Known about the structure:
Blueprint: H1 6-29, H2 36-42, H3 45-70, H4 77-88, H5 92-123, H6 148-167, H7 190-198, H8 203-227, H9 236-264
Helix pairs in contact: 1-5, 3-5, 3-8, 3-9, 6-8, 7-9, 8-9
This protein binds protoporphyrin IX containing FE (HEM).
Amino acid sequence: MKCPTYSSWFRERRLDAVCQILRLPAVMLSQIPGIGPVVKAASTTVGQKILMAITGLLLCGFLVTHLAGNLLLYAGAKQFNHYAESLHSWGILLNVAEVGLFTLFMAHIGLACSTHAMNRQARRSQYTQKESKQEPMALPSGGASGWMFVTGVIIAFFLVVHITDMRLKKNPFIDYSPAYQNGPEAGPDEFVAVRLVLTNWTAIAYVIGLLALGIHLSHGFRSALQTLGVNHPRWNRLLEIISLLFAWTITLGFLSLVTWAAMTSGTSN
Ligand code: HEM
């Protein structure tokens, strides 16, 4: 056991404060007649883990569709731009979907912080030896589970960079003018814009972010299924393998696009 120091005491007080702040929305919602019991259940560690599993799996669904759309880059500029145009033609519906997606990300991140803080608060002392429920198939020393929080933080940073440079096209280190050859009113050529982003030095953030995603998913996907009751001694090994396959298929799929951009930059298609 470690001796409590001033810094650990200070860290515990900070965690208490974070927990109180994160609980506020739940406390306020639980006052609304009718939904109180549901909200109360969701403010327990178990309830939050279930919500985290559901939001995580929904985000996995987004990743599958997002990768499928982006793989159209291999089909060429015409097909990819057609896909991007049809997405943007959704207009207000796309904005609603974006708000929904943003809420999902925020809920997942908020729940992760909250359960992390609540677990730490409940224990009050750190494990001297960390153990994982799953066997370390992906990484040594506790496997990917010990990396969940840190990879989550890296993915969150990656998302900020990604939305800024791909969605908003506001990365100050990138000259987007080749994507606006037909004039600003015609909108960007998305195919050109994606290649500009992926061949800029900020693509390093993509490689780091995507590797963090692979580690995060390789544990997170299995863990979410386990939380939701998909758990049987006979099938557990198979489920672990499926999770690893899912995680690294998604990751390598995205990473292949970074490689493709580097190899084809300077060509017209
Ligand atoms: C090489 C990898 C990737 C490429 C080429 C890519 C490409 C894109 C593009 C082109 C957009 C803009 C779409 C638009 O203008 O409507 C976009 C948006 C977005 N991407 Fe990615 N993406 C990649 C990886 C990822 C990953 C790993 C995540 C999640 C962890 C992600 C999450 C998002 C989100 C949340 C948006 C905003 C959605 C929206 O506002 O419509 N992307 N991505």
